[in-house]
Design goal:
Elements lengths: L9 E4 L2 E4 L3 E4 L3 E5 L9 E5 L11 H21 L4 E5 L14 E7 L9 H6 L1 H10 L7 H7 L11 H13 L21
Antiparallel strand pairs: 1-2, 3-4, 4-5, 5-7, 6-7
Helix pairs in contact: 3-4
Length: about 200
């Protein structure tokens, strides 16, 4: 479906409430929404509708749906933001920089030169680990201060207003208006029929 539908008024994202105005695509098991503090313009998220903290706790159907929706969203943001590539990443657990305990896929449009060194995006996404190692000399659980100062949604980026996020979601929603969603069998969600 191109826009969030049904009787749902919002989605849960860990402890957070994501209003429908900030979502732009849903599938059977997942949804896509705009990012409060994007790393790059067009940086959006795809999450499971069910609250699942860790990647290994996803069902096979959720895993297939997460990546199928991520692929569709990636194509749309790449086109809309005239990107030349995408960074797709999942931070799984606090030690990996996950700031919201809910499985989600980052979809980040990329352009040549958007980082001085192309791989610097991984440094941005891995700040939690790098700062921990620099301050302690080894990888150990981070203190609250280290987590607060180093994760992907750190305080150095200004949160966007709900109105700005709703406007971006509306633009993204239009990208899917004429698109026919793939069938469950096309993305591996349907059981094979018995012959």
């Amino acid at each position: 479906m191109s826009a969030p539908a049904g009787k749902r008024a919002f989605f849960h994202f860990g402890p957070n409430i994501i209003p429908l105005s900030q979502t732009f695509m849903t599938s059977r098991l997942c949804y896509a929404f705009v990012n409060l503090k994007p790393v790059r313009p067009g940086h959006v998220l795809v999450a499971t509708q069910r609250k699942v903290a860790r990647f290994n706790d996803l069902t096979g159907a959720e895993l297939a749906d997460l990546f199928a929706l991520g692929q569709r969203v990636g194509a749309a943001v790449e086109r809309l933001f005239q990107a030349k590539g995408l960074t797709l990443t999942i931070q799984d657990g606090a030690a990996a920089g996950q700031t919201v305990s809910h499985v989600h896929l980052h979809v980040i449009p990329r352009h040549p030169g958007d980082f001085a060194n192309n791989d610097d995006i991984y440094i941005e996404l891995e700040k939690n680990k790098l700062i921990r190692e620099a301050t302690t000399g080894h990888e150990e659980p981070p203190t609250a201060d280290v987590v607060a100062s180093s994760h992907i949604d750190n305080d150095q980026r200004t949160p966007r207003t709900p109105e700005d996020m709703a406007a971006e979601a509306a633009i993204l929603r239009r990208e899917f208006e004429d698109e026919e969603p793939p069938s469950d069998s096309e993305i591996g969600l349907a059981e094979p029929s018995a012959s």
